[in-house]
From TrEMBL:
InterPro entries: ARM-like (IPR011989)
Record's protein name: HEAT repeat domain-containing protein
Membrane-traversing stretches: 12-32, 38-60, 72-99
Organism whose genome encodes this protein: Solimonas marina
Membrane is among the record's keywords: yes
């Protein structure tokens, strides 16, 4: 930014000339009197006002010298119509004020406080309430709306299997902002599955043979994951499972593998078709799928048939590492 200019010598000269002319005007007024004195006074007073106006403009800082004609007219009017008081006001009040303003530098940057936006990344304190009681408890029991909203936002850092139940709980929240936030986050997760399934279906229409079988297996896996995460319920879930079963059957008709039979067995279990599930899981085991994946489902089938001895025997086939999984550990500890 350009610094203000120093005091202009020409400006000071015009101010001095104006002061002398003003003094002469008053001397003529008192000395001559009457009409001649008044005429001389007006001429000298106008000349003095013009000198003061030009001098004041020359003394302005460079940044304030825009509009020369209007600025000089303003100073001339103030000096002429208020006589000596206007001239003194320009020299002793206006000019120092303008010059002081010209010395003030505007900062290039202005520091502002960071706004408290609602969607900033959530920083989870290990000693905070979220870690002590869990996000699900915060959403379900806490009265503080902002705390419940933050708990819903924190589900972004969880796996889908853990986040979806909390989001579904938040859909029943009394606060609109919490419900809408949970709904938008669930919709976003569903949208990801829908877009990927549509992409695979479009690709499937352009392929056949083994590549088509693989695409159908991927579509069935996405449908299964969408259902297992709890993103769909009721009749929509039944439709999704049926679509998954149709796709995995089509893949099996092309090339049966242990993984495809295993997926078909899980789908049949979820649909309540237990005999079909047993056949599919048995075929998956025959083709080499390890017991860590098939034994829990065989144990569940045996339990549903009240064959508790087989249930215990199947759970015994599960490896020690798999037994430590959170969902399986209490079951294994009860039966074995």
């Amino acid at each position: 930014m350009r610094a203000p200019s120093a005091l202009s010598p020409f400006g000071l000269l015009f101010i001095a000339l104006g002061a002398v002319l003003e003094l002469a005007a008053w001397l003529a007024w008192f000395g001559l009197g009457g009409v001649p004195g008044t005429a001389v006074f007006l001429v000298l007073h106008a000349a003095a006002a013009l000198g003061i106006a030009v001098g004041a403009w020359l003394l302005l800082p460079l940044r304030l010298r825009g509009g020369r004609g209007s600025a000089i007219a303003f100073f001339f009017s103030a000096a002429f119509f208020t006589s000596w008081l206007g001239m003194a006001g320009i020299v002793l009040a206006l000019l120092p004020g303008f010059y002081r303003y010209g010395l003030r530098r505007e900062p290039g940057w202005e520091q502002r406080r960071e706004p408290d936006l609602p969607f900033k990344p959530v920083q989870v304190n290990p000693n905070g309430v979220f870690m002590r009681v869990g996000l699900a408890a915060v959403v379900k029991y806490f009265r503080d709306t902002d705390l419940r909203r933050r708990a819903v936002m924190a589900t972004r850092h969880l796996s889908g299997r853990r986040a979806v139940p909390i989001l579904r709980q938040a859909l029943r929240d009394p606060a609109d902002e919490v419900r809408l936030l949970a709904y938008s986050m669930l919709s976003g997760k569903e949208r990801v599955f829908e877009l990927e399934i549509r992409r695979l279906q479009a690709e499937l229409r352009e392929h056949d043979g083994r590549s088509g079988d693989w695409l159908r297996e991927q579509i069935a896996s996405l449908y299964w994951e969408q259902s297992s995460l709890g993103l769909v319920e009721g009749e929509v879930q039944a439709f999704v499972l049926q679509e998954a079963l149709l796709n995995i059957d089509a893949a099996l008709s092309g090339r049966p593998t242990a993984g495809r039979h295993y997926l078909r067995g899980k789908l049949c279990m979820r649909l309540g078709r237990y005999n079909d599930a047993e056949r599919a899981l048995s075929e998956a085991r025959r083709l080499g799928l390890d017991d860590n994946r098939t034994a829990p489902y065989f144990a569940e089938l045996a339990f549903l048939r009240r064959d508790y001895a087989t249930c215990r025997a199947e759970l015994a086939r599960v490896g020690h590492e798999i037994r430590k999984l959170p969902r399986l550990e209490p079951v294994v500890q009860y039966w074995i």
